[in-house]
Amino acid sequence: MRIGELARRGGTTTRALRYYESLGLLSARRDANGQREYDEADLRLVREIRSLTGIGFALEDTRPFVQCLRDGHESGDACPASVAVYRRKLAELDECLARLGAARERVRAQLEEAEQRSRPCGR
Predict the structure, then answer these.
(1) At what angle do helices 14-22 and 40-54 cross, to 10 degrees?
(2) What are the per-10-residue average pLDDT scores of the chain (123 residues)?
(3) Residue 93 resides in a domain
(4) What separation in angstroms does the CA of 40 have from each of 2, 5, 37, 121?
(5) Structural domain boundaries, residue 67
(6) Residue 77 needs a FRET pair 20 to 30 A away by CA distance; which of 50, 55, 97, 117 works?
(7) Which InterPro entries does the protein's record reference (predicted)?
(8) Taking the model in full, what pTM does it have?
(9) C-beta separation of 39 from 65 below 8 A
(10) What is the per-residue burial (b if ≥16 Cβ within 10 Å, else e) of 9-19?
(11) Burial status of residue 73 (CB atoms within 10 A of its CB: 0-12, 13-18, 19 or more)
């Protein structure tokens, strides 16, 4: 398939596909006219990349998943390197949630103090 069809079927743009290629995440074959040619395996890689970036993974984080698929595994997360990325990402998210929880508690406390100050005397 050509780059336009891959973009359409993969839910992305031709520009993104060229960028993936520049990063080594995708490899195009060239036909006799020099046009990029892709197959179903490439579509699978694009869908894996899009799925992971859709939940917040950086493009570089998708590399182990792409390699796992290229190595013939049924799933991009069937390899230890992919599992390691999941673990790292989960730790990052846990840290972010902890920071947000602490910030929320500070805002809640500030709101409570402000409400007490804004009450008229005698109430």
Answers:
(1) 90
(2) 96 97 94 92 97 96 98 96 98 97 97 90 60
(3) yes
(4) 11, 11, 11, 73
(5) 3-117
(6) 97
(7) DNA-bd_dom_put_sf (IPR009061), MerR-type_HTH_dom (IPR000551), MerR_fam (IPR047057)
(8) 0.83
(9) no
(10) ebebeeebbee
(11) middle
- DSSP per-residue letters across 1-62: --HHHHHHHHTS-HHHHHHHHHTTS---EE-TTS-EE--HHHHHHHHHHHHHHHTT--HHHH
Structural domain contains residue 123? no
Count of domains for the chain: 1
Count of Cβ atoms closer than 10 Å to residue 51 Cβ: 14
Return all residues near 66 (Cβ < 8 A) that are at least 6 apart: 25, 45, 48, 49, 76
Two structure tokens written together for 56: 């917040």
The pair of structure tokens assigned to 70 is: 């290229």
- Tell me how far apart the alpha carbons of residues 69 and 65 are, in angstroms, rounded to a whole number: 6
